[in-house]
Predict the structure.
Amino acid sequence: MLKSFLEGLDGLTLECNARRGQACSLKDLEALRVDLLGRKGKLAAAMGALAKMGPEDKPAAGKKANEVKAALTAMLEARQADLENAAAGDSLGGFDPSLPGRRPAVGSLHPITLAMQEICEVLTGLGFEVVSGPEVENDWHNFEALNMPPDHPARDMQDTLYISDRVLLRTHTSPLQVRTMLSRKPPVAVIAPGKVYRRDSDLTHTPMFHQIEGLLVDKHVSMGDLRGTLTAFVRQLFGEKTDVRFRPSFFPFTEPSAEVDISCCMCGGAGHISGEPCRVCKRTGWVEILGCGMVDPNVYRAVGYDPESVTGFAFGLGVERVAMLKYGIGDLRMLFENDVRFLEQFS
Ligand code: DAH
């Protein structure tokens, strides 16, 4: 009789331990307490047997009963504390102040911005000052003052987006040459980074892109100064080993004019990479990066400078081109699609 009494109490302890975990609210837990420890509960029922025991068994049975009661009470109290803590957590909106913080995702600069900053850094290091001007321009600043009168065939070089008859989106940053000379006396040494627009859209052209214009005007500026300045610039930007070549070209606002090629930074000027033709320079070993020349006297006349007493040079550089070469980007569209997987590589 004593043995089965003691076994029954052990069973009650096991039952309590198993069932308290299933009690998910204080109400569940109170029901469990009543079922086990209440006046008509399972422990009370077991105690009924105690009264009928002989005197030799009573002390051991009574001791065990008290131990079990204490154990059940402690188990239920522990569960109650857990439930109360969880409820306190809920009142903080599920916020657990003890968890470590989450690092916010930080963006990165766009490769065009990076290239623009690098170019401007090199050129300001050479003594140029940064200026800016409007993207909505008039015909005179964008064309006429740059030696392109209304019927000049050179206007066909650029497909213009017009806002009205004489107002347009600037097709290049060259109007900043005009604006700078109109507002300052020589000597001037400025660069003008910014957006430009053309009616043009295909694999290698976007209707908006970025240029950086340069202008230096002083007494006795020569083509040698142009060569030296641009060679130093290109080598700082692309590395000291970069080869530079000046190819004769034509622009209405410079005379003489040239285009500048650099040795291809993909294939190192070889034209091929491990036997395969280089796609960036199309096997030539050279890539064009800018146009330049000596400022045409007609431009000086348009802005009120005396072409007899000053000379100078100008250059215009495509920023997308530089970004693609510097960062090894094979497709122009990557720069405009804003695919986060692409952009993240520049952080
Ligand atoms: N404005 C020219 C273009 O968009 C680029 C250019 C060429 C700018 C020669 C210059 C220059 O200042 O001297 O194609």
Observations:
- Residues 172, 174, 213, 251, 254, 291-293, 314-316 surround 3,4-dihydroxyphenylalanine (CB under 6 Å).
- The first helix runs from residue 2 to 22.
